[in-house]
Design a protein that fits this description.
Elements (H helix, E strand, L loop, with lengths): L2 H8 L6 E3 L3 H11 L10 H19 L2 E6 L6 E5 L4 E4 L5 E3 L4 E6 L5 E3 L2 H12 L4 E8 L5 E3 L4 E15 L2 E6 L5 E2 L6 E8 L18 H8 L6 E10 L2 E10 L4 H11 L8 E9 L1
Parallel strand pairs: 1-2, 6-10
Antiparallel strand pairs: 2-8, 3-4, 4-7, 5-6, 8-10, 9-10, 10-11, 11-12, 13-16, 14-15, 14-16
Length: 284
């Protein structure tokens, strides 16, 4: 059965992802991505029609999303960022899948990371060594023609991904979205590091952190949906004993929605002292 029929069958109504698992599928996918019709014994009108049909086939297969399972030996981890509790993928080499016949060059692989505690990193490394860990990627060809040959049983395709998943013996362990940012990994929490006011004459015990204790619950709720960890510094004024006009002035979280929520969470908080102040907080 031609690959086009296979793909149409695999991507039946209710599904939008083609399961790419076999050498035959891979071979014919590449042939369609670089399809060039035979123009022998064709008149100009037939040549134009043949080229049009080949282009339509290329656009159809290039417009689909494909799901590929990359085995343990087909990908590598990069560095572990302890402070952020994130494990990166190593993007220095293409992903290898389908019995090592497919090399995938995916845009943004250098930006992909997964939320992981240090003990999880150790466990994943052990699963990977035991060949029980795989990387599942949903991706789409970028439009560049497929390189390689059937004779060598090796093909190379460029593309971009819409999702990344680490899957182990017990199921999905961690995920990342189209941008490569971690998805899930448990609720985040906020730690109030330091709160200071212009009226402070001397450093306060615990650097004034208790001043925003009443906002802790609201702060944690804001951080619950944060994709990554990071630090923020907010400036505010105190009027009639309450926090007013909080503004984020430094942000390593790189999440405007969460940062805005955190600023609103401290607005109106009871605050001893006067003048302007700053609050340093960490999302972890």
């Amino acid at each position: 059965m031609p690959l086009l029929a296979i793909l149409l069958f695999a991507a039946a109504p209710g599904q939008d992802v083609v399961q790419l698992t076999s050498k035959a599928q891979l071979k014919e996918l590449c042939e369609m991505l670089r399809a060039h019709p035979s123009e022998t014994d064709l008149d100009p009108a037939q040549i134009a029609e043949a080229r049009k049909e080949a282009q339509a086939r290329r656009e159809e297969v290039a417009g689909r999303w494909y799901r590929v399972e990359v085995p343990s030996k087909g990908f590598a981890f990069g560095r572990y960022r302890t402070q952020d509790q994130q494990l990166e993928l190593d993007g220095d080499r293409p992903l290898r899948a389908i019995d090592n016949m497919l090399s995938l060059d995916l845009e943004g692989i250098d930006e992909v990371s997964f939320t992981a505690r240090s003990e999880q990193v150790t466990a994943w490394a052990q699963e990977k060594k035991a060949k029980a860990l795989k990387l599942v990627v949903v991706w789409k060809p970028s439009g560049a023609r497929c390189a390689g040959s059937a004779a060598a049983e090796a093909w190379r395709i460029a593309g971009h991904a819409r999702s990344w998943e680490l899957v182990g013996a017990q199921g999905t362990l961690a995920s990342a979205n189209e941008e490569g940012d971690p998805v899930g990994g448990g609720p985040r929490q906020v730690r109030i590091e330091k709160v200071t006011l212009d009226s402070d004459e001397a450093p306060l015990e615990n650097e004034g952190r208790s001043r925003l204790a009443s906002s802790q619950g609201a702060l944690d709720r804001c951080a619950g949906g944060a994709v990554r960890t990071g630090k923020l510094v907010m400036a505010f004024s105190v009027h009639e004993g309450k926090v007013r006009e909080p503004q984020v002035i430094m942000d390593s979280l790189r999440d405007e929605k969460v940062a805005g929520c955190l600023a609103r969470a401290i607005s109106g908080a009871e605050m001893g002292g006067t003048g302007r102040g700053t609050a340093s907080i960490t999302v972890q």
